[in-house]
Design goal:
Elements (H helix, E strand, L loop, with lengths): L1 H26 L18 E12 L2 E10 L4 E5 L5 E3 L4 E5 L12 E4 L5 E3 L2 E4 L2 E6 L3 E6 L4 E5 L14 E6 L15 E8 L4 E10 L1 E5 L1
Antiparallel strand pairs: 1-2, 2-3, 3-4, 5-6, 6-7, 7-8, 9-10, 10-11, 11-12, 13-14, 14-15
């Protein structure tokens, strides 16, 4: 009786295997595809790695890396911060040590496909063509040719017509007339860091009929 049961188990197992093989041959389904879908993984190739030096103070500095992926995404990896991700299609993606608006937890900034400027997940400005980030300031070139700025302006660094820091974008004025600056086609940032004294020297230049600089 026991041997008959063992024989039935063997026959049942073989029939199951034969049925599975036959089904795979008929339907053309690879047996490897019968594994659990939960085991599958998605991979993205790194196309470019860019290194940036971030100076924190006179005795310590850190590095940040921008990883440009095959999918179009960009990841910012920094020593003291979590990994930050920009959306697919983002442009002018930067990992810059400097001023970050309230609520931003990482230093990654970018312009998305809708021309919105973000620092981390914080929406800073809309209708943006380009931007530059300094050690303590951010200047934003808008699609209408105007420029806004935010950050530290206690010494007049923002070029808004008076000495005051701003946490929201504020119109930059023409140094000659005091009126909001218009007709800007390109914005540049020229700056350097003196290693020993860690003094940031900034000069922001706007292409406006001639080159005008805000020191």
């Amino acid at each position: 009786m026991e041997s008959n049961n063992k024989r039935k188990i063997k026959i049942g197992w073989k029939r199951s295997l034969i049925f599975t093989l036959a089904l795979a041959l008929i339907l053309g389904v690879p047996l490897s595809n019968m594994e659990s879908k939960a085991q599958a993984a998605t991979f993205d190739k790194i196309n470019k790695i860019t290194s940036h030096s971030l100076y924190w103070n006179s005795w310590d500095n850190a590095s940040a890396f921008m990883l440009t992926m095959d999918s179009g995404k960009t990841y910012g990896v920094q020593r003291y911060q979590n990994v930050a991700e920009s959306p697919v299609g983002a442009r002018n993606v930067q990992m810059q040590n400097g001023y970050t608006p309230p609520g931003a937890k990482t230093l990654v900034s970018y312009i998305n496909e809708s021309d919105d400027f973000y620092v981390d997940t914080v929406l800073v400005e809309t209708g943006v063509k380009d931007y530059v980030r300094g050690y303590r300031t951010i200047f934003i070139l808008k699609k209408d040719g105007s420029v806004t700025a935010l950050g530290n302006g206690s010494s007049g660094e923002l070029g808004i017509g008076y000495k005051q820091s701003k946490s929201i974008p504020t119109e930059v004025v023409d140094p000659d007339t005091g009126e909001p600056i218009t007709g800007i086609e390109k914005i540049f940032f020229l700056g350097g860091l003196i290693p020993v004294q860690t003094i940031q020297i900034m000069k922001v230049c706007f292409w406006y009929q001639k080159i005008k600089c805000i020191l």
